[in-house]
Amino acid sequence: MYVLIDCLYGPEISIVISSSWRLDMPLSEIKYMLGPLERQVVGATPEIDDPFLHHPRHLEVERYLKQTHQEDALWFAIDDTQAFYKPDAPVVITNGRVGFTREDCTRLYKLIRSLG
User: Least C-beta-crowded within 10 Å: which of 27, 45, 69, 110?
Assistant: First the structure.
C-alpha cells in the first residue's frame, strides 16, 4: 500500500475507483482504506453488468468519462487483469498476489510520460 501512496500521491492525479470493491462497499469506506490518497478519490465508475461484454472495465471508464463530460481526459488504470481492458489501453498490470510494487510504479511513470 505504501508504494501505491508514494507513486500516486499528489494534486495532479485524480483517482476514480473501478475496482470490484466499489460493488461491495461504500465509496467512503474505500477512500478511508486508501489513507492519504482519499482526498484524490473523485468518484467510481458505473457498473456495466453484461457477462458477454469484452473489456468491461475499459468500457466502464469510458462511460464514467462521458457521464462527467471528460471524454478527452487522459486516464490510466492499475489492475491485475489485462482482459478487463482493450489491448491498447493505458493500463499497468500488477500481480494480484503481490500488489503494487516499485517496479509497477516505474512502469506507471513511463506510461504517464507517454500519455503527456
Answer: 69
- Residues near 80 by Cβ (< 8 Å), separated by ≥ 6? 93, 94, 95, 96
pTM of the full structure: 0.88
Cβ of 100: how many Cβ atoms within 10 Å? 21
Residue 43 confidence (pLDDT) above 90: yes
- Burial code of 59-77, b = ≥16 C-beta within 10 A, e = fewer? bbbbebbeeeeeeeeeeeb
Asked whether the beta carbons of 108 and 75 are under 8 A apart, the reply is: no
Q: What is the DSSP string of 7-32?
A: HH-STT--EEE-STHHHHS-HHHHHH
The answer to whether the beta carbons of residues 94 and 78 sit under 8 Å apart is yes
Helix (H, G, I), strand (E, B) or coil at 79: strand
State the average pLDDT over residues 7-30.
92
Mean pLDDT, rounded, for 50-72 = 95
